[in-house]
Design brief:
Layout (H helix, E strand, L loop, with lengths): L2 H16 L1 H7 L8 H4 L3 E2 H25 L6 H21 L5 E2 L1 H21 L12 H10 L2 H21 L15 H80 L7 H22 L2 H4 L5 E3 H9 L8 E8 L9 E3 L2 H17 L3 E8 L3 E8 L32 H12 L3 E6 L7 E8 H4 L11
Parallel strand pairs: 4-6
Antiparallel strand pairs: 1-2, 3-5, 6-7, 7-9, 8-9
Helix pairs in contact: 4-5, 5-6, 6-7, 6-8, 7-8, 7-9, 8-9, 9-10, 9-14, 12-13, 13-14
Length: 468
């Protein structure tokens, strides 16, 4: 194929692959198809439980300091502030009907209330000199774990702002009556700095972990969609084969009878043409059913196994003829038998290998090699191209979801977005593992290698008919 014809074909291929992530995400259940939407959907019961735990802990701490240690503190004001949280929970328990998921702003308001309540209680018991000041990090961490970034930032600013106001409104740190306990301003400044650093660190850490978890859940759901689709296609093949088999006999009878009627009718009969049409359409139906019956090779339990060479050929077939030579070879390794081994035909493996081959074709200069090897303990499929190879900054992240850099100059080895993650996940779910690297100099290009233990791909009945 000439270069001027190959270019638009590969552009269309890359454009199609660029839209695959969005197409897969559109198939996900509502609420899982958007990472940002998944955040902020905090359960009301979770916040209420955390608030009851805080009320119990605060009450015990205040009562222990006042009665157990005998320190002087504004007990009534402290209990009033604690009661505010308790009354909020009581109100919410009556207002809520059944399990509820809070909207982002609703959860942010409740967590903001918790920040203000805790800051007032700390102010009544020493302010920046209170060793429990660092507890202000707790509601910020809860916000970062469940809310979007902008709400987490607002709550972090609120917590830091409340701490900054404490020197103006805080009571003295409770201590023994008749003794004066004073701290230098440098100590209070250090306490405040530690709080600010803790809030920023925990907020950013929790937010990043939350986003990564949401992305991973979304990507795994997309992988599940792909696997379900491949399995449905295989089931559809089995159904078509069964249909072809069941309809074959009555159609053969119709065809035979129509031909006999045609032969029996005189040439001048007005029904002779109808009989000929009936025989022609019956013959056409038989041809269609014969084509459908070929699906039996790929779906019937008797034919649900094939040589590993045939499986690799099937995965590579759709990607030939795009201007890049796709060469499939197979050979035994040193410890492998000469006969090509038979394995289970897996829709997951076909999809994954097809995705890797498609990626290689997209960025190869002229050739993609697909090599199937086997030993006495493993099956190995290696896909190598002669393109620019994987970019150095992408190599450590290969296999993670949403690692994608568009454009050959940026990435080199292909688009490593959700498609690569799905293919890798499918390989791992079939018992295999993936290794990626660049070809050694002076050659250039990328290598993706899939390896399975033989026990994972053996036919269900552990027999290997001679299919080659």
């Amino acid at each position: 194929m000439s270069p001027h014809l190959r270019a638009p074909i590969l552009e269309d291929l890359n454009a199609t692959r660029a839209g695959m992530d969005e197409a897969l995400v559109s198939l996900l259940p509502e609420g899982l198809s958007n990472v940002g939407a998944a955040q902020g959907r905090t359960r009301l019961a979770t916040l209420m439980t955390l608030r009851w735990l805080a009320v119990a802990g605060q009450t015990l701490a205040v009562l222990f300091v006042y009665f157990g240690l005998g320190f002087n503190l504004p007990l009534s004001l402290c209990l009033a502030v604690i009661a505010a949280s308790a009354w909020l929970n009581v109100f919410l328990s009556f207002a809520a009907v059944g399990p509820q998921l809070l909207k982002s702003w609703e959860a942010a308001l409740q967590i903001g209330f918790d920040v203000v309540q805790l800051a007032l209680l700390i102010s009544l018991t020493g302010g920046l000199t209170n060793p429990f000041l660092l507890f202000l990090i707790a509601p910020v961490t809860v916000a970062a774990s469940s809310l979007r970034g902008r709400y987490t930032a607002l709550i972090s600013v609120l917590a830091i702002g409340m701490a900054a106001l404490m020197p103006l409104i805080a009571f003295e740190l409770p201590w023994r009556e008749g003794e004066v306990l004073s701290f230098p301003q440098l100590f209070e400044g250090g306490h405040f700095a530690a709080l600010c650093i803790g809030i920023v660190f925990f907020a950013l850490s929790a937010q990043r972990v939350n986003e990564d978890e949401a992305k991973m859940v979304r990507a795994l759901d997309a992988a599940a969609v792909v696997m379900s689709r491949e399995q449905r296609l295989s089931a559809l093949g089995a159904m078509s084969a069964m249909t072809a088999h069941e309809l074959g006999t009555p159609l053969a009878t119709i065809h035979l009878v129509s031909k006999e009627l045609y032969a029996m009718l005189p040439e001048d009969s007005e029904h002779r043409e109808d009989a000929a049409l009936l025989a022609e359409q019956a013959e056409r139906c038989r041809d269609i059913l014969q084509r459908l019956g070929r699906a039996r090779e790929a779906s019937d339990i008797v034919h649900a196994r094939m040589p590993i060479s045939a499986l690799v050929e099937e995965a590579a077939a759709p990607h030939k003829g795009l201007g890049v030579a796709v060469r499939v070879t197979y050979e035994a390794a040193e410890t492998g038998e000469e006969k090509v081994p038979v394995i289970r035909r897996s829709p997951e493996i076909l999809h994954a290998l097809g995705a890797f081959i498609e990626n290689a074709v997209s960025f190869a200069d002229s050739e993609v090699r697909v090599v199937a090897n086997w030993t006495d303990s493993q099956f190995i499929v290696t896909i190598r191209d002669d393109g620019p190879g994987f970019a150095a900054e992408v190599m450590p992240k290969l296999g993670e979801p949403y690692v994608s850099q568009r454009g050959e100059a940026q990435l080199g080895g292909g688009d490593m977005g959700l498609g690569f993650f799905i293919a890798k996940t499918l390989i791992e779910r079939t018992g295999g593992r993936i290794a990626t690297r660049n070809r050694a100099a002076p050659r250039h290009g990328a290598i993706v290698q899939a390896v399975w233990p033989r026990t994972e791909l053996q036919p269900l009945d552990n027999t290997e008919n001679n299919l080659n």
